[in-house]
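Appendix B. Chain record.
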Amino acid sequence: MDAIIGKSLKRLDTPDKVNGKAIYGIDARPAGVKIATLASCPVFGGKVAHVNDERAKTVPGVRQVIVLDDLVAVVGDHMWAAKQGLDALDITWDEGPNAAVSTADVLNGLVTESEKGAQSRNRPATPQRLSERKRNSRRPTTSRSSPMRPWSQ
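C-alpha cells predicted for this chain:
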C-alpha cells in the first residue's frame, strides 16, 4: 500500500464546493420534514400570557402553532413559512418577577459580590487575581443554544 502522508493529493470534492453542487447536512430535506421557528420570553423566567395566532395560520406553508409555558413555536413546510408565521403572531408575555431587572442591575450585583471577595472554585475573586481586561469584560446573557453564542456551537 502506498503511503499518503506527505503527498499532495487531488481534492475530488473541491469543484462541487466551488460551483454550489456540494450537498451538506443542512441541505438534506427528507420528505415530510418540517421547520420550526421559536419565540421565547425576552425576560428570564417569563411565560406566555396570550397568543393570537389567527394571522399566522393564514400564512401559506404554516402547519401548526405550538404554545408552551415559556415559548411559542411555528411549524412550517419551509423556513420562510415558519419565519413569516412567527412574525405574524401577536404574543403577550407575562414577564414575571424579573420584569424590572435590567442588565445594569445584574452587572452591579456581580460587581458588588466580587468586591466582597466572593468565592469562585474555593478561591477568592480578588482584583489582584483578575486581569483588568477580565474585570471589565461584559457579555450579554444568552441561552446555550443561541446563535448569538457562536463560541458555544
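Further analysis of this model is presented in Appendix C.
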